[in-house]
Amino acid sequence: MTQALNILCAGLLAFAAPTLAASDTASDTASDSGPLVEIEVLDGGRTARGTYMGALRLTLQAGWKTYWRSPGDAGIPPNFDWRGSSNIATLAIIWPTPEVTMTSGYQTIGYHDQLVLPIEITASSPDLPVTLAGQMMLGLCKDICVPSEVSFDHQLNLQADRNPAIAAAMANRPYSAQEAGVKSTTCSLSATKYGIQVEARISMPAAGNTEVAVIESGTPLAFGGATATKRRGNMLIATTEFLPTSNDGFALDRSKLRITVLGSRHAVDIRGCAAG
């Protein structure tokens, strides 16, 4: 059901996707009352590691939301095209903790009103200018869902001071497994009729009230359905089934699995698991 809904949303978005001009600040002007979304690139200066911080700041019209990298039962994840960027060896997106909401009976995961998405950049040549440019494709939802494609093109100010908006978004990211007191994470894999079921057992303190776990496959060859989550004392058990995205099949590498636990007090980002 999840994949069918995602494919449907993706098809609708692709059918009506608008084209926007590139600039430091771009917007989707699909609404008579103003842009549904505006995007700008923020400067965050140089880190102690010698990398540079930037961010994409999305400002949504009141009441609208967009999706996390794993959108839940319905919706599509954002996609990025970084062509146009220059002097970038690697970049890493740091996702702030998203919200879990129910929409028409479906669980969705995303952000309301504004999203600051920090990006840590390693320059190919540290002393030369760095340009962050490209497009972001995303879905926007309120009473209806509409497509958006926004462009950005910005030469970073490498001498910029620490940016409070980026710092706040970084502080809102999920805890690491160590920070959250995770003692162990094991995953058992079993074949199903059409794919592979993963059962993750996570020994960790509760993250607060109802916990929602999301398991990501770590491979574009597999997609996952909804994750069932239950707790037994200090053990959180999360189960999902992965299915192939094509007829070529797939394999799962436990070290590439990524498990995010979303609770009312905090979230936890767990990278990889042992056999169990």
UniProtKB/TrEMBL annotation:
Keywords, sorted A to Z: Signal
Q: Which InterPro entries match?
A: DsbDN
Q: Name one Pfam family in it.
A: DsbD_N
Q: Does the keyword Signal apply?
A: yes
Position of the signal peptide? 1-21
User: Domain Thiol:disulfide interchange protein DsbD N-terminal: where?
Assistant: 53-153
Highest taxon of the lineage: Bacteria
What is this protein called in UniProt? Answer: Protein-disulfide reductase DsbD family protein
